[in-house]
Amino acid sequence: MSYNSQLRSAILQFSRVTASNERTAIGYLKSSNWNVEAAANLYFSSNNGSRSRASSDKTELESLFEQFRDSSDQPNTMTTEGAIRFMEEIGVELDEATVLVIAELLQAPVIGVFEKDKFVEGWSSINAMNLETIRSKIPILRSNLDNDTDFKKVYKYTFNLALPPGQRSLPLEIAIYYWCLLLKDRFKDHIDDWISFLENKDRNSITRDTWNCMYEFVQLAKNDPGLASYDVDGAWPSILDDFVRHQRSKA
Amino acid sequence: MATNPPNREDLKATWAFLEAGIERIMRDLNSGMDMSTYMNVYTAVHNFCTSQRPIAQPPNLQQSAGVHRGAHLLGEDLYNKLIEYLTKHLTEIKEGSQAHSDEALIEYYINEWERYTVAAKFINHLFRYLNRHWVKREMDEGKKNIYDVYTLHLVRWRLDLFNHVQKHVMAGVLQLIEKERNGQTIETTMVKSIVTSFVSLGLDENDSTKSTLDVYRQFFEMPFLAATSQYYQIESKQFVAENSVVEYMKKAEARLAEEQNRVHLYLHPDITGPLMKTCEKVLIQEHAGLLREEFQILLDNDRQGDLQRMYNLLSRIPDGLDPLRTKFEAHVRRAGLAAVDKIADDGGDNLEPKVYVDALLEVHTQYQGLVLTAFKGEAEFVRSLDNACREFVNRNKVCKSASTKSPELLAKYADSLLRKSAKSAEESDLENKLTAIMTVFKYVEDKDVFQKFYSKMLAKRLVNFTSASDDAETSMIGKLKEACGFEYTNKLQRMFQDMQISKDLNDAYKVWLEDKPQDDSSATAVDFSCQVLGTSFWPLNPPGTPFNIPEVIIKTYSKFVDFYNEKHTGRKLTWLWHLCKGDLKANFCKNAKVPYTFQVSTYQMAILLLFNDRLIISYDDIEKNVALSQEYLVPSLAIFLKAKVLTISPATAKPGPGTTFTLNTDFKSKKIRVNLNMAVRAEQKQEVEETHKTIEEDRKLLMQSAIVRIMKARKVMKHVVLVQETIAQIKSRFTPKIPDIKKCIDILLEKEYLERLDGERLGYLA
């Protein structure tokens, strides 16, 4: 994500005052409408002078990480089983999209794997320094999915998460699984048609381009459920053209 | 007449003297005027103007100015006297005119006009001194309504006579012209004189030496055009009600010519434009709808003359032809489609290429002829013709199964012309037919398909030496190059080059062989020649079956390989056995005095050579020895059975595992040379399918490379623009569909040649 120079200097200023990272800075600045002073006030009141405790908090997160790391795993890496236990612990169902929000927050390399430094960095960026605060943040993370900007971030990151190693595009069934997870609300008018359309097509993978463009398509469908404004000669990937043609021919 | 000029200072006397002279000139010029009288009048004017009467000089004026004013005032007296005289004279003429009407009035008017203007010239001359001094000075001072004496005559005519009588005169003129339009003969010089007189009355207000057409336009042109419009309105309405449209067109055409002619005969040329416009409006514009309705009927009945007439008429009015072009285009398209429908029903699946192409050409020729003769080859009609032809050439009943059928059949037709055959066409005739092919080719949208089939068939002609004429081949390629550019025919030309190079190569090989020690006679026992063809230029595929090279030719084979490798190191030779052939001398036939020669494919040769050792061989043995796959082996054997070179056992079986073959020593044939090398029908069909398949693949590559080329040059581009540009680049080969282009963009995105940027833009990734 890129910011213009004005916003950038606000981020810099905020980070300098609060000694926080960029992510935290953006979060606070956003919630105070990019007013640095207000953001700093918010930061300090909510953290209650946590600055001095920063390093001890990190150790708390690190030990939390170790709790869920399997001893047979690579050092500094938490794998699926640990991750599942962790999700249960913090009250996140495995089949809810919030998993992906967390995976994006912790910059998981693939689904079900967390790296220690990213884990610590991710949680501290939203000031969740221990299990308890992490739990308290879950509703906020969950609601992130309703916000277009955050959703888009998570949506695009999901392609990386889901991509099998060494591949360029997503196997169809995996793509469908994640689409269901992410789009069941946003795309509810069309998701069933979309999936049955995909299943009837002899195409067994989804390219990154298609995945990314799907976000824009969902936005379009949200505002225009009849898809009348869709231009089949426009800059869409052809699979979406085919889908829209298919939908129109049914209508 | 007074012999001497009167006292120079006496106006009354002077004018009396002058008036007598003027009256003489006006009324009785014909009886002449002697020189001295004339000179005396002239002198009287001069004297009067130069007299220095002190009277009438205002006392307060300075002396020097007084001289001037004096002459001035004197001139003015004379001028006014002249006006007075003219008005009186013209009033008399006006009164005289009331006794006449119609033609008599015109005649009267003309006579008076002519007398008056001639006299005016003389009088002008007599008053030259006045003109030169007094009039000139007045005009120089910028006084309006002062004219030289001749012009004064015209001005007075206009004011004192013309304004009163012109209506009556014009009524007469119009009546006269109407008479002529109704077919009577009239004295056209009368109208002409009237026109001339009207034109003469036009004086430029600012410069009396110049004339304008104002008077003429107002008093002649306007009423004349109004009368014309009314006349033809009535006439055409009546005519149309009673006659056919075709008759009406003839009538209108005749009327227009007649009016045009009228201008030449007795009207002022200035009227041509307005008159024609008036006639066109009434005669054509107002009936344009009716004419256009007839257009389809004329087309249906191929009435070329009437179509031409209609074109000529409607081309005279603004936007008159547009509806015709639309109708014409639709008509030609229908005609083309109908022609194709007819032969498609007759021909079915095995439609003769010639029949198809001829049907297309016939329609084109017919309507091209029509455009050239009836529509004068007008560019817009040519465009309509082209549009229609493009439609029915690319989208007709035959093309329904596959849009690429037109170029395929066209290429096949070209092949049938260029291939050696019994009914080969004459050279000049052939050239015409090739030109005709290009006519259809121009309309073909899938030019790449034509290219594909053409090069396939050219390759076959060259490899099999069945091309009828090198000149014709060159001519055809020249035409294609002219139409589509160098790149289109590049490979075709390379194929010819390879043929030439191969000829030289074979010669070189023979020389090379002679220099070699003859260790084994079998190397030269076979008469051998070959073509070495560049893989990337020839649309030939490597053989689709394994093959054991027969013992007899293996030496030759390896010698040539040695030779070639010696000559060009690092080049790989692929032997296209399925395209090779040879002659076998058959010495086994009991009944033949002269041994038969079998013309066979290399595969067949390998099979037959096995029978040198044994007379009966099983299918499995043959298969083992020649190693051919079944789809090649079975048809080859089938040909031998059909020609009775071999017999099969069991007798009714089809060639296949478990059967055995016996050499037929009783073989008989009417010909010494027996051609057994026949293409298998199934093979041909498969080839066509394959060609179509490669077309699809080639198109994808062509589109992708076009996209990459464009993006490489532009780096960043809007999606829509990229698609348009790609279409523009590829259009000359085929018409790409947008979804196909988009698929190619998808592929390039996936392969990371391109990336998607915001705002529907794409970026090029090096």
TrEMBL record, chain A:
<dbReference type="GO" id="GO:0045116">
    <property type="term" value="P:protein neddylation"/>
</dbReference>
<dbReference type="InterPro" id="IPR009060">
    <property type="entry name" value="UBA-like_sf"/>
</dbReference>
<dbReference type="GO" id="GO:0032182">
    <property type="term" value="F:ubiquitin-like protein binding"/>
</dbReference>
<dbReference type="GO" id="GO:0097602">
    <property type="term" value="F:cullin family protein binding"/>
</dbReference>
<dbReference type="Pfam" id="PF03556">
    <property type="entry name" value="Cullin_binding"/>
</dbReference>
<keyword id="KW-0833">Ubl conjugation pathway</keyword>
<dbReference type="GO" id="GO:0005886">
    <property type="term" value="C:plasma membrane"/>
</dbReference>
<dbReference type="GO" id="GO:0031624">
    <property type="term" value="F:ubiquitin conjugating enzyme binding"/>
</dbReference>
<dbReference type="GO" id="GO:0000151">
    <property type="term" value="C:ubiquitin ligase complex"/>
</dbReference>
<feature type="domain" description="DCUN1">
    <location>
        <begin position="56"/>
        <end position="248"/>
    </location>
</feature>
<protein>
    <recommendedName>
        <fullName>Defective in cullin neddylation protein</fullName>
    </recommendedName>
</protein>
<dbReference type="Pfam" id="PF14555">
    <property type="entry name" value="UBA_4"/>
</dbReference>
<comment type="function">
    <text>Neddylation of cullins play an essential role in the regulation of SCF-type complexes activity.</text>
</comment>
<dbReference type="InterPro" id="IPR005176">
    <property type="entry name" value="PONY_dom"/>
</dbReference>
<dbReference type="InterPro" id="IPR042460">
    <property type="entry name" value="DCN1-like_PONY"/>
</dbReference>
<dbReference type="InterPro" id="IPR014764">
    <property type="entry name" value="DCN-prot"/>
</dbReference>
Automatic annotation (TrEMBL), chain B:
<comment type="similarity">
    <text>Belongs to the cullin family.</text>
</comment>
<dbReference type="InterPro" id="IPR036317">
    <property type="entry name" value="Cullin_homology_sf"/>
</dbReference>
<dbReference type="Pfam" id="PF00888">
    <property type="entry name" value="Cullin"/>
</dbReference>
<dbReference type="GO" id="GO:0005737">
    <property type="term" value="C:cytoplasm"/>
</dbReference>
<dbReference type="GO" id="GO:0051301">
    <property type="term" value="P:cell division"/>
</dbReference>
<dbReference type="InterPro" id="IPR016158">
    <property type="entry name" value="Cullin_homology"/>
</dbReference>
<dbReference type="InterPro" id="IPR001373">
    <property type="entry name" value="Cullin_N"/>
</dbReference>
<dbReference type="InterPro" id="IPR016159">
    <property type="entry name" value="Cullin_repeat-like_dom_sf"/>
</dbReference>
<dbReference type="Pfam" id="PF10557">
    <property type="entry name" value="Cullin_Nedd8"/>
</dbReference>
<dbReference type="GO" id="GO:1902531">
    <property type="term" value="P:regulation of intracellular signal transduction"/>
</dbReference>
<dbReference type="Pfam" id="PF26557">
    <property type="entry name" value="Cullin_AB"/>
</dbReference>
<dbReference type="InterPro" id="IPR019559">
    <property type="entry name" value="Cullin_neddylation_domain"/>
</dbReference>
<dbReference type="InterPro" id="IPR036388">
    <property type="entry name" value="WH-like_DNA-bd_sf"/>
</dbReference>
<protein>
    <recommendedName>
        <fullName>Cullin-1</fullName>
    </recommendedName>
</protein>
<dbReference type="GO" id="GO:0031625">
    <property type="term" value="F:ubiquitin protein ligase binding"/>
</dbReference>
<keyword id="KW-0963">Cytoplasm</keyword>
<dbReference type="GO" id="GO:0019005">
    <property type="term" value="C:SCF ubiquitin ligase complex"/>
</dbReference>
<dbReference type="InterPro" id="IPR045093">
    <property type="entry name" value="Cullin"/>
</dbReference>
<dbReference type="InterPro" id="IPR059120">
    <property type="entry name" value="Cullin-like_AB"/>
</dbReference>
<keyword id="KW-1017">Isopeptide bond</keyword>
<dbReference type="InterPro" id="IPR036390">
    <property type="entry name" value="WH_DNA-bd_sf"/>
</dbReference>
<dbReference type="GO" id="GO:0031146">
    <property type="term" value="P:SCF-dependent proteasomal ubiquitin-dependent protein catabolic process"/>
</dbReference>
